[in-house]
């Protein structure tokens, strides 16, 4: 069972902005080659950080409001939220050690 929550625009506020724990939002597209490389990594991060980080996944083509609101210009894209604030962003593929370093540097 996956620890990643699949979202659409209507659920974003409740699942991300009102979450009591930090949230990593992963924006992706099925036609995106680098997303196919990053997606398994996101599953691993969701499992490894399940005690302190919620991980959500949004497909850019069906979530235009969230894409626009959080200025997603390319995929894969990561947005890290805490207490309804956007605290960090990353666009493009990222290796696991760099992703873990990025997350760890921003988690409370």
Can you tell me about this structure?
The protein is an alpha/beta fold. The chain has one domain: Glutaredoxin, CATH 3.40.30.10. The protein has four helices and five strands; from the N terminus they run βαβαβαββα. A five-stranded mixed sheet has the order 1-3-2-4-5. It is globular.
Write the layout of secondary structure elements.
Layout: E1 4-7, H1 12-17, E2 23-28, H2 33-48, E3 54-59, H3 64-69, E4 77-82, E5 85-91, H4 96-106
Parallel strand pairs: 1-3, 2-3
Antiparallel strand pairs: 2-4, 4-5
Distance between the termini: 27 Å
Query: Roughly what is the average pLDDT, rounded to an integer?
Result: 95
Number of strands: 5
Q: Total helix count?
A: 4
Which class of secondary structure composition applies to the elements?
alpha/beta
Q: Note the run of SSEs as H and E.
A: EHEHEHEEH
Beta-sheet strand percentage? 25-35%
- Strands ordered across the widest β-sheet: 1-3-2-4-5
- The Rg value, from CA coordinates, equals 12 Å
What is the class in the CATH system?
Alpha Beta
The CATH homologous superfamily is named Glutaredoxin
CATH architecture: 3-Layer(aba) Sandwich
Task: Provide a quick synopsis of the model.
The protein is of the alpha/beta class and 108 residues long. The protein has helices at residues 12-17, 33-48, 64-69, 96-106, and strands at 4-7, 23-28, 54-59, 77-82, 85-91. It is globular.
Key traits:
4 helices, 5-stranded mixed beta sheet, alpha/beta, 108 residues, Glutaredoxin
């Amino acid at each position: 069972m996956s620890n990643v929550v699949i979202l659409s625009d209507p659920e974003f506020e409740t699942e991300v902005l009102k979450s009591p724990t930090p949230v990593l939002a992963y924006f992706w597209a099925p036609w995106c080659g680098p997303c196919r490389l990053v997606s398994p990594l996101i599953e691993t991060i969701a499992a490894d950080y399940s005690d302190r980080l919620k991980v959500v996944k949004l497909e850019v083509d069906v979530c235009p409001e969230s894409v626009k609101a959080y200025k997603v210009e390319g995929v894969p894209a990561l947005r890290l939220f805490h207490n309804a604030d956007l605290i960090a962003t990353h666009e493009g593929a990222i290796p696991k050690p760099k992703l873990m370093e990025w997350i760890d540097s921003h988690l409370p």
